[in-house]
Amino acid sequence: MLHELIYSSIGLVLLAYALDYAIGFTNDVREPKRVNPKVPLIGHLLGMVKYGGSYFTHTSIRTKDEIYTLPIFNAKIYVSNSLRLVPLIQKASKTLSFRPFHKTSIQKISGCSAAGANLFDGSLTDDYDRILRTTLAPGPWLDEQNLRMGHSSAAQIDAMIKDGEEKKILLLEWARHIIVQASSCGIFGQEHPFLDPEVEKAFWKLQAHLPIHMASLDFFGQVVKSHEVMHKAFLNYCAAPPADAARTLLERQRVLREAGMSFEDAAKQETSMCMAMFGSTVPTLYWTIWELFSRPKVLAEVREEIETQAVSRKPGEEKETHDADAETDFLLDVTALKTRCPLLLSVFQETQRTRHVHANIRLVLEDTFLDDGRYLLRKGNFLMMPGSPIHRDVSVWGQSAGTFNPYRFVPNPSKVVSADAVPPPSGFLSWGAPPYLCPARQFASTEILIIMALLAMQVDLIPATNNSQWEQSPALDYGELVTVFNPARDVEMYMKPREQGVGKWTLKMGESKTRVPIASG
Questions:
Q1: In the CATH scheme, what is the homologous superfamily, with its name and number, of domain 110-508?
Q2: Where exactly are the structural domains of the chain?
């Protein structure tokens, strides 16, 4: 019996290798070269399950080709890890398209009906995208949204330290809460659905179980349960949006309803917006905190930069706050924070560059030649464009590409790691690649800069474990659909008020249409 089992196992392994070898003959010589899995047939699939979006970084290390093929049974995933090919792929957008995935992802994430999702087969996709870009562009609408978000951030930090006592927090849990509350205040107004802890809890359950739901493997209905809580909250909210709801919320709902979507499905679409707002902003904030506060020298320089460029004390009549009679000790100028604090912005962008794992996906709708016929992409297969291999490419970023350099994005820096540390004009893909850039990038960037500035000026953060030392390479959670991975485990921190930052903080927006000068534009 044992011998039969051994022989059967050996036979199955040999059969798998034989099938993998035979399938290799189906490759057209003009297609990108194959990178074979270590485990035949399913090896790459297992790798993607284990490592998520970062798997393409692992496979890119195994080849010097700028585009290559990952075979999975008789399917193929083409992986482009070359900055040179990005504009060529964009030009072929009619045959290399994200649109086939858009409707499915909308339906899975929002939980709307099939009829509601089918509306995205028509002009609604373009109309919806256009209204997002219009209402989230720098200007008065975004300023109002940012001001609500900023005041919420300041209030939450103030609530943590107003008694002057040191607090112990779980850093990821805290980052999640402040982003959800601040973003929701900006988008949905002060009376937003996430004031209910159960709604916030339901969102994070949705986030955690979304990958298995997208694969139709959510056998215990965890996403369905989360949807029920969130849908009830958004149906109540959208029935009578408050007066301070952001223009982007109102215009989104208008466009959806005018396209023929039911009220129920339109309200459920806000679930998708929450995924876009919270899911990747949280780990980006988390690691930006980690990278800054673990470097005392850089933290001191950032504090000096903010103090001299963006903070004024006792502004008197100049103050801008919800309570006109409130005493203001510190005024944070958001325009100055955006434009005159390059080191803080550099730390933020370098965090994105070194931790970005998202891969843009396209379906090959028709046989497509790239690079004047050099590469053939066959119809029915998939194309992935991961940003991480480009962000780590020494031909793009120089020999310091694998090093975290907090000064990398500082214009004319005096403290660079090396002369080749200056970023190229088009090599930063954390917000996507033109013309498909995240429409909310200015809002998200402003949010992180505000929270980082308030934290830097008001508190010290000290690890409560590991002998008060910041861990060098914490383990990551590969299981969520995010552009930056969360840590595998939360970490306890002591949040200690700084004497220099004690007092009431408020914000002013300054000149309208001011942009955060992020590398993506």
A1: Cytochrome P450 (1.10.630.10)
A2: 2-81, 110-508
- The encoded tokens of residue 511 equal 């000149």
Tell me whether strands 96-97 and 75-80 are parallel, antiparallel or unpaired: unpaired
**CA 195 remoteness from chain centre:** 23
- Decide: helix, strand or coil at residue 172: helix
Token output for 429: 């893909």
pLDDT values of the chain reduced to their tens digit, one per residue, 521 residues: 444 444 343 433 333 344 444 455 467 899 999 999 988 878 898 888 888 888 998 899 899 999 999 999 889 999 999 999 999 998 998 999 888 888 888 899 999 999 999 999 889 999 999 999 999 999 999 999 999 999 999 999 999 998 899 999 999 999 999 999 999 999 999 999 999 999 999 999 999 999 999 888 888 899 999 999 999 999 999 999 999 999 999 999 999 999 999 999 999 999 999 999 999 999 999 999 999 999 999 999 999 999 999 999 865 544 444 443 456 799 999 999 999 999 999 999 999 999 999 888 899 999 999 999 999 999 999 999 999 999 999 988 988 999 999 999 998 766 554 445 556 667 899 998 766 789 999 999 999 999 999 999 999 999 999 999 999 999 999 989 899 999 999 999 999 999 999 899 999 987 778 899 998 86
Confidence (pTM): 0.90
What contacts 24+ positions apart, CB below 8 Å, involve 317-323? 318/508, 319/506, 319/508, 320/147, 320/506, 320/507, 320/508, 320/509, 321/151, 321/506, 322/151
* Tokens encoding 359: 């891969």
Q: Quick one: which of 37, 33, 57 has its CA closest to 46?
A: 37
* Helical spans, DSSP H, in 259-295: 263-278, 281-293
